[in-house]
Amino acid sequence: MHVPYDLSRVRVLDLSQNFSMDSPAFAFYEGPTVKWQKRIAFEGVNAQYLGTTNHIATHLDSPVHFYDPGPDIAGIPIETLFGPACVVDLCQFGIGDYQIYGPEQFEAWEKKHGITIERGDILIVHTGYHRFYNEDWHKSVECPVTGVPFRGFDEPHEPDLPRSFLRHPGPQGRFAEWVLDRGIRWLAYDCIAADHPFNTNVRKARPDLIPEVEKAIGGTLADLMPWPDDYQVMHVRLFPRGVFHAENLGGRIDEVLDQRLWVGCFPFRFKGGEAAFSRFVAFVEEG
Questions:
Q1: CA-CA 20 to 30 A from 177: which of 50, 142, 237, 274?
Q2: CA 226 centroid distance within chain
């Protein structure tokens, strides 16, 4: 594969979500606080104080998030965070609200597009559910999620936080095993979490939705995503193996679907950090 050393021929696309004091936190997490400490009118300078958990907007989870030996954010080599990636759009396979996906969709994607997901690749999983996060900021194509009407490029996005947090698709444990078997370097997702929402503490937060979820997935959560064996499997099973992930991508991601390209995830060098806000970018070679 051609490595784009000549950056004059490369477009840099931002695949990150915005962050603000209105960025919502995950279940049982505290939301952000942004305070003005100084103002130009009075102190001659603008300065802010930020208080927040790490798992808001676009962020990178380090293995320390679920595996104490780590590495932490600072311990992940920068060269690991930059490299070749495959962007797999699951919408084309009809994967939508509450749906479960597995290796079969990714192998079907390889056959359909003639692209092989190679050992050492970064795997970007596109569900389309970034469109429902309130901090999504760019829309240049129609929403790819099944059943979402197109309202025009000049209309607001499709913010729907309950759908964003509660209804995005997710994998079973067998997908985590496939990731290890295929030698995926690390993963990135355009939805709130790498795991199915009802394979996280959302199951405890919204037990009233379990019948609706089980109807959608065609079986019981106890059978299809059993606890404790498969609890947050994309975190618990993969992080000890060094396969971490970024979550809540967005921005211009819809412009790079079903491609092989180079990407980079750039958190600040957070010593001891279990996660960190990140800028996620795609490098697209022109002509």
A1: 274
A2: 23
Sequence-ordered list of residues with C-beta below 8 angstroms from that of 212, at least 6 positions apart, any chain: 98
What's the CA gap between 231 and 225, in Å, rounded? 7
Closest CA to 190 of 265, 124, 106: 124
For residues 16 and 283, the answer to whether their CB atoms sit within 8 Å is: no
Residues 145, 146, 150, 155, CA torsion sign: negative
Asked if residue 35 lies in contact with residue 49, where contact means CB atoms within 8 angstroms, the answer is yes
- Strand residue runs (E) in 30-74: 33-38, 47-51, 59-61
Query: Residue 6: what are its φ and ψ, rounded to 5°?
Result: -80, 90
Domain annotation covers residue 24: no
| pLDDT at residue 286, rounded to an integer | 82
Q: Identify the pLDDT of residue 119.
A: 98
Specify the number of domains making up the chain.
1
Q: What is the pTM of this model?
A: 0.93
**pLDDT at position 135 over 60:** yes
Res. 265: pLDDT tops 90: yes
- The mean pLDDT of the chain is 93
Cα separation values, 135 from 66, 104, 151, 167, Å: 26, 31, 18, 17
**CATH number, domain containing residue 130:** 3.50.30.50
Asked if 268 and 72 touch (Cβ cutoff 8 Å), the reply is no
Is position 39 within any domain? Answer: no
Residue 27 lies in a domain: no
Residue 113: phi, psi to the nearest 5? -105, -5
User: pLDDT tens, 11-63?
Assistant: 999 999 999 999 988 888 889 999 999 999 999 999 999 999 999 999 999 99
44: in domain: no
